[in-house]
């Protein structure tokens, strides 16, 4: 009987911790810090997208189970991006690097658009953060913008 009570207490404690970490992740501040090419060849371009996640809680960590989204450049969907199992400590910022491999074929429309207009580039990340709850995963939409990254 004591073991059962111990396991129930441990389940409730860890369940509450996870719920608090999920609530904190919803309250985090998100920013698109950088989109930087790292390598290219005739078939693809490798890029790093760096997303800043700031946990504003001073006492508890924030956690996200997974993120699924799209990198959109000048209203053209360029690539899918995703990450899993991120934890941000209290009152701190995590710069999450997301590596991408983008086929050259998907950039054709974008290259023509930039050459016909100015070299202005608007980056957008549109996606969903998923959190674990006792009832399953719950998704929260996230949209980030950045103009003329350098």
What key attributes describe this structure?
150 residues; three-stranded antiparallel sheet; 2 helices; alpha+beta; four-stranded antiparallel sheet; disordered N terminus
Tell me about this structure.
The chain is α+β, with helices and mostly antiparallel strands. It is 23% helix and 57% strand. The chain contains 2 helices and 7 strands, in the order αβββββαββ. The protein has helices at 2-26, 108-116, and strands spanning 29-40, 44-55, 62-73, 76-88, 92-103, 122-133, 136-147. Strands 4-3-6-7 form a 4-stranded antiparallel β-sheet. Strands 1-2-5 form a 3-stranded antiparallel β-sheet, with helices on one face. Strand 3 and strand 4 form a beta hairpin. The longest helix has 25 residues, at 2-26. The protein is elongated, with a radius of gyration of 19 Å. The protein starts with a helix and ends with a strand. Mean pLDDT is 78; it is low at 2-17.
Mean pLDDT score, rounded? 78
Strand content: over 45%
Principal-axis shape: elongated
How many β-strand runs?
Answer: 7
In this structure, how is the largest beta sheet organized?
Answer: 4 strands, antiparallel
Alpha carbon gap, first and last residue: 62 Å
Radius of gyration computed on alpha carbons: 19 Å
Number of helices: 2
Class by SSE composition:
alpha+beta
Low-confidence regions? 2-17
Order of neighbouring strands in the sheet with most strands = 4-3-6-7
Fraction of residues in helices?
A: 10-25%
Secondary-structure element order, as H and E?
HEEEEEHEE
């Amino acid at each position: 009987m004591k073991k059962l009570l111990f396991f129930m207490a441990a389940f409730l404690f860890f369940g509450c911790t996870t719920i608090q970490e999920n609530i904190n992740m919803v309250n985090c501040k998100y920013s698109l810090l950088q989109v930087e090419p790292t390598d290219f060849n005739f078939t693809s371009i490798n890029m790093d997208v760096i997303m800043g996640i700031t946990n504003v809680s001073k006492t508890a960590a924030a956690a996200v189970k997974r993120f699924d989204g799209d990198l959109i450049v000048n209203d053209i969907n360029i690539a899918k991006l995703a990450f899993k199992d991120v934890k941000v400590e209290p009152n701190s910022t995590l710069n999450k690097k997301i590596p991408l491999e983008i086929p050259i074929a998907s950039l054709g429309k974008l290259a023509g658009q930039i050459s016909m207009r100015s070299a202005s580039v608007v980056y957008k990340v549109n996606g969903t953060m998923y959190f674990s709850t006792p009832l399953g995963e719950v998704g929260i939409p996230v949209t980030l913008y950045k103009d003329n990254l350098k």
